Amino acid sequence: MKVEEVKILLALEPLWTAAVDGKEFIALRAADIEVEGTTLRFSRYTRRILDVQWLRPNVVRLQVRSALRSRTEVVTFYPGDRLPAGIDARKRRRAFQRQIAEALCKYFGARAIERQTLYSDKIHGVGGAYPRFLLRAASHIAAICVDPDETHAVVNGVMRAAVLWSSVLGRRVSVVVPAGRTQTVASRLQAAPKLRSGFDWLQWDGSEISPLALEAPQPETHIDAYQAPEVGAEVDRICALAPGLLQPVQYIPGRAVSVRLRGIELARVTQNGATYPLGYPLEPIIEEIVRERRHGSRHPLARAHEERWLESNLIGSLGKLLPVRSEWIYPQVPSFSGEERSIIDLLTITGDGRLVVIEVKASADPDLPFQALDYWLAVERHRKAGDFAAKGYFKGIRIQDQPALLVLVAPLLAFHKTLDRLVGLLPNSVPLVRIGINQEWKREIKILHRQGLLS
User: How do residues 218-264 score in pLDDT, each as one tens digit?
Assistant: First the structure.
């Protein structure tokens, strides 16, 4: 072991952050850290150094042990007070875990926390962003929570995590969501009685826990007016560079047409001209993408933006796969305000005028059912309000006054193992169709499995 090198390193930086087993994070001055022989002292810790690992030239991980314990610990020193993004997120989540634990004990009148955890349970599909607690109270209480500083996807994903964790525990679970960020969760609960009644839904305002108010406003979605730009000649000229390969797709918010090659945008054409995100001329770019972005290739281009590639292939063959009007396919309509979605949303219509919502995912995603429900609910709100006809969509077609059909499309082996359990909690009013396609969809799409009726 090169303990002397550790001693020198810790003296070079004025400030350090020590992470103890990834659970406790301590800000230290260099003067507060002592290394004498194989003995390490900082804060209230005195440990013997057993092993040294250099993660980076200025990041060191020490395996240590207390003189009074047989269990080893891992202490990692990071320079300064700014941690790497992943470590910083863990530090924030640990701080939230301690804070929400106090609020839970107060709300439930619990004597103590019997057990708590923040690890990622990949076997059961419960992510490491959600602290889980078992409380010792008059009755056994289980609670799962989410930090207000998480992304939209993580906050909304607590619902899926609660369902899966509850099935592991075999008991009722209380779910705590951040007050002020409850719109999507409340919208789902209003529509899904089995979800609403199967759990105790709570909210935390930063100081105390209270019952979740289901009367929260619906998530904000909007529909841009559809006005097809008069750019046919320029789009045809660009597509002629690679006939059968380049695909024009409406970009409705910008009144433009996006010209794509296997999901990658090469040009965006408006009535004011064309822009080329990857540069111009297009011929060498097309040649490279065709060569590298193909079925069986291991090039990074073959793995990038797979959802977009699957969307392009699906749009090109949708009329052959499903009884819909292939001339009326709108991507991402309606759109969500301020939220990033990890799945592709398509809106189309059957020959007799029934709306069809298609959710596309190229890889396994446990949140697919609930994210699909979000989009279906948004489409239903706008359908009932008559917004699609008013904004110029599906011209010449009378939209039926029936719930939109919801179609989930993914490679058959990419449907997440938790899909059936989550789909079983969706509202009975959702007409659901699941379509599993072949793994070789990059070459040609074939339907291998279909569940539900598209009519």
Answer: 888 889 999 888 999 999 999 999 999 999 999 998 899 999 999 99
What are the residue ranges of helices labelled H in 205-271? 232-239
Q: Does residue 82 have a pLDDT over 70? A: yes
CATH level 3 topology of 305-455: Trna Endonuclease; Chain: A, domain 1 (3.40.1350)
Residue 236, phi-psi category: left (phi > 0), alpha (psi -120 to 50), beta (remainder): alpha
Interior angle at CA 111, CA 106 and CA 116, nearest 5: 85
C-beta separation of 439 from 413 below 8 A: yes
Alpha helices for 212-305 (secondary structure H): 232-239, 283-292, 300-303
pTM score: 0.81
| Helices of type H across 61-220 | 85-108, 152-169, 183-191, 193-198
Q: Where are the domains of the chain?
A: 3-82, 87-211, 222-299, 305-455
| CATH code of the domain occupying 87-211 | 3.40.1350
Name the β-bridge partners of 410.
436
Q: What percent of the chain has pLDDT over 70?
A: 98
- Whole-number Å distance between alpha carbons of 299 and 18: 39
